[in-house]
Amino acid sequence: IFCLPDLRMFWNALYLPQLPLDLAYRRWPEALHDSLRQTVPLAVTQAKRIGWANPCAQEAGIVAGQPESSAYARAANLVLIARDTEREASAVIEAALWAMHFTPQVSLLQDGLLMEVSASLRLFDGRDALVQRLRDGVLELGLTPHMASAPTATAAWLFARQGDALHGDSATFTALLERLPVNSLVSVQPHLETLEAIGCRTIGQLCRLPRTGITRRFGKAVLTELDRALGAEPELHAWYEPPATFCARLELSARVDSTEALLFAARRLLMQMTGWLVARHSAVSRFSLLLHHETVRHRTNSMTPVTITLGSASRDLAHLMLLLQEHLAKIVLSASVIELGLQAEDIVSLAAPNTELFPAAVSQAESLGRLIERLASRLGEAAISRLAIAGDHRPERCSMALAAQGASSARKG
């Protein structure tokens, strides 16, 4: 859609500067990541050349653009991993689903996201609180973000690519933009030598050049990008549309033999599912975590489903995580788990939660329902029952016990 210039809008940009490296670290368990970053030189290659190198590799003299053979000569213990663009695209979608907790207006880029959040600032207690919650979730997904904000999408993206935590409002973003180096603009890349020769090193200096001269020497694209950053030119964005159904899979970095170790990976999948539910104004009443086993040892049944049925539909991440934890505690793994899957099975429409000052009857009923769900997850559905009126004139037969989470009748009491 076209976004007309309107400085009342507010954009957050999420740039993933080392996305290929982040995905490379996912090949190892989370507990080893800090040690790998400090002691193991690691690099991601593209077309037989170094594309991204971690700090340990950079200390050994490995830089982007080096041939693989030259990099091995500088560090014999160098670990090289080929770039996987499909996994990168999937990781950006993971971040987009998390971002949909905060706004439905999310636009995908190759290595990041743009989000229009002006309508969400008050709901999430302002820009700083929203940005922090967004950052925490992205870090939990195993990605390293640069966050920035501005009244225009182009300016926010330029800020994020320049560094982390660079934020500007309608009164200050122009001055921040003018201080950025001119090579921040994509459209000027073919003309950097010419701009350097005339002493134009910042965007502010470029803005002070005659517009007709810029168009004649560098083309119209430079002015277009500049005007979009300043809010004088409309911007074109395509909002991300979540799929009609949710089914996600996550390959584990190592074989897992205990259900406790599965919770961390399962939370990443739940974060995506709850973002998908928020974007669709829905909630889940039943979902399944699929434990895919190592087929070499376990040929007859290579997958164990863990199905969770809720008494009342929900999309609250903390609540769904507690229910999943209770169910996994009762599972005994017959073989190692190498992959997780999560699918939402029963979806219902759900309006935004009521944020009343005092708890209403609906809020109290929801709290009771969540207590029943947790008890049923821990003790089993058969152990929790509720009383209902039965059509019988005899006092001892005028009530019966029903399943607490279902409508099917049980024995009479």
Describe this protein's structure:
By secondary structure, this protein is an alpha+beta fold. Helices cover 37% and strands 24% of the residues. It is built from 15 helices and 17 strands. The protein has helices spanning 19-25, 33-39, 55-59, 68-74, 85-99, 127-140, 153-162, 173-179, 192-197, 203-207, 211-218, 220-230, 262-279, 317-328, 361-379; strands at residues 2-3, 11-15, 42-46, 49-53, 79-82, 106-109, 112-116, 146-150, 166-167, 235-236, 247-256, 282-293, 303-314, 337-349, 385-389, 399-403, 409-412. The chain has a five-stranded mixed beta sheet with strand order 6-7-2-8-9, with helices on both faces. Strands 11-14-12-13 form a four-stranded antiparallel beta sheet, with helices on one face. A three-stranded mixed beta sheet has the order 4-3-5. β3 and β4 (49-53) form a beta hairpin. α7 packs across α12 and α11 (211-218) crosses α12 (220-230). Mean pLDDT is 85; it is low at 1-5 and 407-413.
Give me a quick take on this structure.
This protein is an alpha+beta fold. It is built from 15 helices and 17 strands. The radius of gyration is 27 Å and the shape is flat.
